[in-house]
From TrEMBL:
This is Helix-turn-helix domain-containing protein. GO terms for molecular function: DNA binding. It is found in: Cytoplasm. PANTHER family: TETRATRICOPEPTIDE REPEAT PROTEIN 29. Residues 430-450 are annotated as: Disordered. Keywords: Coiled coil, Cytoplasm, Repeat, TPR repeat.
């Protein structure tokens, strides 16, 4: 790969000047006059002198090329062209055509690397990371986001926040809740303590941290993050980011029983996503609406919304998200008395979920299969599913779900006459329920001056 330092090397520039001069049939004297001498051009072409910017601009004008092309080897306007193609790939990704978007980002990355355009490399890698999240390839997503951080190692922290948020999201989806929260919290703390109050960067982080906070049972911190995100939203110039904020904040409102406010927040998000034509996020709004209706006991509307979300995500080949929606749809189907259909759906999607990929929903699938098995008076199968769910949740550190699962397992042990095992399960559940709900076991990150 040709890097910037190599192209700026006097020998490289000298060879480029000599090649262009020869192609145009010019002598060293013709190229030099009137400002420079033939001897200077000879020395420059031999790579024995680093040409000043005025000298290169004079030579570029005589050769009929742009200064940038002569100094770097890049065609004039090439960076602008790559920027336009990056925007096109981002729009393709928003439409749900993940494979086509990945192809576009890959081509841009190769050309940006060839000409040493670091910002364009970083944006192409960021796009590839987002594509990997869409398809559920979490290892590749983490790698791509790490590469963005490496490319932007000397850039200010706000510029690196999208990659940090991507990496935190990948770890969250892999079931590594505590590490995901650590990434969010440490970045927020560094931004706020150092006075780097970039509204888009802060909004991105406060929006992203809500989900792992909720799954860890840190509801107070989730509510605080939602409050700060709402306060930051008017300062943001990114409507897609504001829409994501409304979708995430709705979850804290649902947990607090503020159903009407959550519904209004989701309506705002959906409208923004429709205007922006971001179909994957629009599908996620249907998903969250289904969750809202399920929590409110309206299972018919919940089923309708979740089926629509699953259809949209499946059409876009968002495999991991599709499987996660299917688990929540199965829960609604079970509550509506369609347990056989629910069990069939769960068994279908469990092959796509694992401890490293969708751990929380994998645990939820086993939990629901355990409940269905108990309803069918199959205690052994129920216990097997509960134990597998317990293992997944312990690894993820999902305190609230762990406490509920220990209650189910304890009840099963008690009904089958295993009193000591039941007491152990209840004690374990109480331990998780009374946990402080912290994430990094340290103080909450510093806050922006709002």
């Amino acid at each position: 790969m040709a890097g910037t330092a190599e192209r700026d090397d006097p020998e490289v520039i000298g060879r480029r000047v000599q090649q262009l001069r020869t192609e145009r049939g010019l002598t060293q004297r013709q190229l030099a006059e009137p400002a420079y001498t033939p001897a200077y051009i000879s020395t420059l072409e031999a790579g024995r002198v680093r040409a000043s910017e005025p000298a290169l601009r004079h030579i570029a004008e005589r050769l009929g090329v742009g200064y940038e092309e002569l100094a770097t080897g890049r065609p004039a306007g090439f960076a602008t062209e790559l920027r336009l193609r990056l925007t096109g790939a981002q729009r393709t990704l928003a439409s749900g055509a993940t494979e086509a978007a990945a192809e576009g980002f890959t081509v841009v990355l190769a050309e940006a690397e060839e000409y040493g355009l670091v910002p364009e490399q970083a944006d192409a890698l960021l796009g590839l990371g987002e594509c990997a999240l869409e398809t559920g390839d979490l290892e590749t997503a983490q790698l791509r986001f790490e590469q963005v951080e490496q490319r932007l190692g000397d850039a200010p922290l706000p510029a690196r926040v999208p990659a940090l948020r991507g990496r935190a999201t990948a770890h969250y989806l892999a079931g590594e809740l505590r590490y995901s929260c650590y990434l969010y919290e440490s970045t927020l703390d560094e931004l706020n303590r150092n006075g780097l109050h970039d509204p888009d960067a802060l909004l991105l982080l406060y929006t992203g941290v809500i989900a792992p906070y909720m799954d860890m049972g840190a509801h107070a911190r989730a509510a605080q993050a939602a409050e700060l995100a709402l306060a930051l939203a008017p300062r943001s110039g990114d409507p897609a980011l504001v829409a994501r904020m409304h979708r995430s904040v709705a979850r804290t409102m649902i947990a607090e029983g503020r159903v009407a406010e959550a519904d209004a927040s989701l309506a705002k998000a959906s409208e923004l996503y429709r205007q922006l034509q971001i179909r994957t996020e629009l599908a996620n709004c249907h998903w969250m609406r289904g969750y809202l209706h399920a929590q409110n006991g309206d299972y018919a509307r919940a089923e309708e919304e979740l089926r629509e979300a699953r259809r949209m995500l499946s059409a876009k080949r968002a495999a991991l998200y599709t499987s996660q929606v299917a688990v929540e749809l199965a829960d609604v189907l079970h509550r509506r008395g369609k347990s056989e259909e629910a069990a069939e759906l769960l068994r279908e999607v469990l092959s796509d979920l694992s401890s490293e990929r969708g751990a929380l929903h994998s645990a939820a699938a086993h939990r629901l299969l355990g409940i269905i098995a108990e309803d069918a008076r199959n205690a052994d199968t129920a216990e097997e599913h509960y134990v597998r769910a317990l293992s997944l949740l312990e690894r993820a550190g999902a305190a609230g779900d762990l406490a509920d699962l220990c209650r189910l397992l304890g009840d099963l042990y008690r009904r089958t006459g295993r009193v000591e095992a039941a007491l152990d399960a209840y004690r374990t559940g109480l331990g998780h329920r009374t946990a402080p709900g912290t994430t990094t076991l340290g103080p909450a990150p510093a806050q922006p001056p709002l």
